Amino acid sequence: MSRHEISCSDALDQLWALLDQEIGDDDADLVREHIERCSHCYPQYDFDRAYRELLALQCREQAPPELRRRIFMRLLEEGA
Amino acid sequence: MDRSSAAEPDRPDAAAPTRASQAAEPPLPKPGFAEDALPWLDAVYRFALRLTAGNRSEADDIVQDTFLRAYRHWSTFEPGTSARAWLFTIARNVFLRSKERQSRVPETLASELSHDVTGSASESVLGDVSRSNPEHRFFDSFIDREVIRAVEQLPDDFREVVVLSDIEGLNYAEIAAVVGVPLGTVKSRLYRGRRLLQRVLYDYAVEMGYVRRSTQ
User: Fold this and answer.
1) How far apart are the C-alpha atoms of B32 and B28, rounded to whole Å?
2) CA triplet B22, B53, B106: central angle to 5 degrees?
3) Which residue on chain B is closest to A77 by alpha carbon?
């Protein structure tokens, strides 16, 4: 392992930070490089990414139009 | 890896605010509210639905109360900060207060449940899934209602951070501000909440026959 490589344990620790884009560019590159070459870590990355896509795409209900109208009317009544 | 909030933190594509139906409405007297707060009505509604575990009438009340309070205190909102995070903070406080009024029993149950699940929540379900079914197809099994029901089964502490992050796309700092806990707590709750939700989805998939239970 060169000094620029990270261990599976470090990569897995930072997996969510990578998926959440809550990691600096340099660290992100290190984690990504590790994951792409690691048969142990890649499945977990792929699994967690699929999980995130499922949640982001599916739970997208909109407020009922009647509620929206009611709130707007209440706000108008409040005035300035 | 798609967190569009990085490009424009308060306008993520995945949680795009709705501007429909505003064209015909008369203008609100307080400047900025219609443009900056009202577009997040759907997001606040979804958050309220998840907080109340799908109780639509309770969610309606929370959303209405949230926007009324936000409107009254609009002068305290700092322009340039996240209106969405501010609205979520108000919605959460409205929810907690209404829950306190109703009963203290659910709070106790929720915290007991949190302790029960905490132990198993840190283990990945991937091993079980891989033995049952090719994991890349696993999440394709679910329809919308099933995912929502699974989210609603999470204990309060985990549910709110998972909803704010994975459904509404808030970043860690915004979630910490909404929930009122340190960044490290957000990270650990997110980690456990996600693992737990994956476990709930797996158990449900087994129950429904989408996958066979893994036998080790």
Assistant:
1) 9
2) 135
3) B28
Burial class (CB in 10 A: 0-12, 13-18, 19+), A74: middle
List CB contacts (< 8 A) between A60 and chain B. Answer: 46
CA–CA distance, B23 with B145 (Å, rounded to integer): 32
Q: What is the mean pLDDT of residues A43-61?
A: 88
| Interface contact B139, partner A, CB < 8 A | yes
Number of neighbouring beta carbons within 10 Å of residue A33: 14
Interface ipTM: 0.87
- Name the E strands within A1-80: none
Nearest to B54, CA basis, from B66, B46, B63: B46
How remote is the C-alpha of A74 from its chain's centroid? 36
Q: Please judge whether B144 and A58 are an interchain contact, meaning their C-beta atoms are less than 8 angstroms apart.
A: yes
Alpha-carbon Rg for chain B, nearest whole angstrom, is 19
Chosen for mutation from B47, B132, B165 (greatest number of chain A CBs closer than 10 Å) is B165
Mutate to test the interface with B, among A9, A20, A57 (most CBs of B within 10 A): A20
Write the pLDDT tens digit of every residue in B176-211.
Answer: 999 999 999 999 999 999 999 999 998 888 887 777
